[in-house]
Amino acid sequence: xxxxxxxxxxxxxxxxxxxxxxxxxxxxxxxxxxxxxxxxxxxxxxxxxxxxxxxxxxxxxxxxxxxxxxxxxxxxxxxxxxxxxxxxxxxxxxxxxxxxxxxxxxxxxxxxxxxxxxxxxxxxxxxxxxxxxxxxxxxxxxxxxxx
Length: 147
Description:
The chain is of the alpha+beta class. It is 46% helix and 21% strand.
């Protein structure tokens, strides 16, 4: 009478490894989609927070000045300090030109524009670390990823 065998054969182990590899290969694209969606949600949340902080700053200036603001009335450094304090996002700069254009490094950018009601924040842009450019258009209320 032979003793009972203990453990697995090499073929059984190889079959288990192949099945696990197939499951990992199938799950990886799904997981990366969730990661991308989570990043988009994070950027949207921070863009909205920066937008609200910028609008709050502009409204505070309107109350203090009791009148219409122009871009020349705004101290950019003071505005950026206020936004950073309100949002705890450290990498915020003032954007120039069209939102998302120009040379952007990994930062959030606030775009201001003169409107018929004074100065307003028209967009907040995040230039990601290889993930593309994310634009929160405050006028349209939309959020777009550009590659």
